[in-house]
Amino acid sequence: MKIGIMSFAHHHSEAYIANLRAVPGVEVCGVADEDSARGQRFAQAHGAPFYPTYEALLESKPDGVIICSENSKHLSLVEMAAASKINVLCEKPIATTVADAKAVVDVCARAGVLLMTAFPMRFSAPLMEVKARLDSGELGQVFCFNGTNQGELPTKHRAWFVDPTLAGGGAIMDHTVHLVDIMRWYLDSEVAEVYAQTNKIFHANEVDVETGGLEMITFQNGVFATIDTSWCRPPYWPTWGGLTFEMVTERGAVIVDGFKQNITLYSHANQRPVWQYWGSDMNQAMISEFVSAIHNGREPSVTGVDGLRAVEVVMAAYDSARAGQPMKIQQTVP
Amino acid sequence: MKIGIVGAGFMAATHAAGWAETEAKLIGIVAETTDEATSLAKEYNLKVYPDLASMLPDIDVVDICTPTHLHHEMTLQAAAAKKNIICEKPLGRTTAQAREMIEACRKAGVKLLVAHVVRFFTEYALAKSSVMRGEVGKPGVIRLNRGSFRPKKPAGNWFLDESKSGGILMDLMIHDFDYVRWIAGEVESVYAKKISTAHPGAPVDYGLVILKHRSGTISHITGSWAYPPPTFRTHVEIAGDGGLIEFDSADSSPILNLVAKPSSDSPDVGLPSSPVSESPYTTQIKEFYSVLLGEKHSRIEAEDGMAAVQIAEAAIQSAATGKAVVLESLVEVLS
Q: Is A248 on the interface with B (CB under 8 A)?
């Protein structure tokens, strides 16, 4: 099976190349990037064929592409892939507006191509374990979540993450979607309402987007949840950030740290503690699912609609932060 | 200086232990039944009074350790008798009550000291001074968690009667409302949810509150009565533009007890246990004693106690209405 990479704007693209190559029978058939120098650099670094244009890559008829462009450019690349009848795995968030997110879903549906949203936490071994316990009934009824998806300022990876146009926003845009998706998955319920407060105290003079964000989400089934999306971790924190949640049920609480499986390294070279992750590679499991879904001609376990639902919450959170009151969410019908 | 405690529950016992470490003379307690007060009276050689009125003539300072809904009436009574007052948190069941208490004490010319003991916990006081020294810069996002099990009192559990205690948002989370206001200043708006709103019969309760401060800082306050006994956990994270402070009671506990318990008994209310040379409750009583002697300034004013009640009351309102509540400034409340 042949999979291509469209754009290296998102740093996950490099990990995905390694993940693809680890799946038996999968070939990274080519990469393309509108930033030709960047594309050639990564193509060379990973020994992957470089195509001078996205069109040229798509004409080589890969079975699927992974879209790793800036958030606001996802739609145009998805449209190109769909027009060529190529299956799509799109980096999260799938778009920076609800209209674009809906268009991403619609264009793939019309073309009859598979669309998967890159929500790797769905494939986290600890999170899957908790989902299984929840489904078994042993935890009882869920009442609420207290979630965090905090990080350092992501400019270390790429500058565009803090560009209001290319990224579509700051901490709220970057760090709302994972927990929203996890909770939708756990609860099988849609978000009814969201309240958000944001500020720009961290890195105030460096960026034009919000760096602090707190949200309270209410699901249609009555479960409520907070998400701390803040870029509050200093650059010398032992790791990039993390994702945690406490899930409170009628029987107590389960406290989950998605990135707790670390060794702590104290090295003369670093002069600070560093957490080295040894837990299972959730990206690998996500890429394998994309490949398997294409191979078997079935819908992937995480769909484009999942990506759309998360974007709807993000946009309502921004509306709420402006209004100072919770905002109701009406699910878009793709 | 002669002291009398009102109430004979576990908080009265911690205050009594604190007074024993001062030069003040703890002379009596008010208790509804002598049974309840017997062990405390015996331990500190106290006279047991049937009501506050009968104790007032014998004392200089009233230390109110009764259920929250009684604070208002007892404070007014003590102020009318020109006695200085120490009052357990929450200062009042409502902002209006707290305001009347403050006014009554001001008119009577007596001191009103509110026992927000978290300000006296060493780790919390250290974090406060670290922030004051500018070591983390301006706080951007603050996270405070406080979690335990549902208070279990056999009969007439006033903790669980919201009209008396204010429930989890008032009784438990007021600790962190006061602390976060100490760190990040006045609160502008409050948005809150809790389990017991939609599930009044649930065996657990849990509150989640988002605060916006006038300084621009935003805060996330969590209170849990959802854990199995004898759990008591606190967590603090103060992230600023120049650094970050974090501590967790589970991580900083110096003793990990892996010894089998002889009995399954657990205390009525979850309490922190990280041994220090002086209990924060005693530190608090000693400081209040110095304040009453005029030797020291209090780290907490009665207005701070009222402000914490105001935040908790707004949280209760928000949880009930589903809307964010914008607070009146303290000046407006007191005018």
A: yes
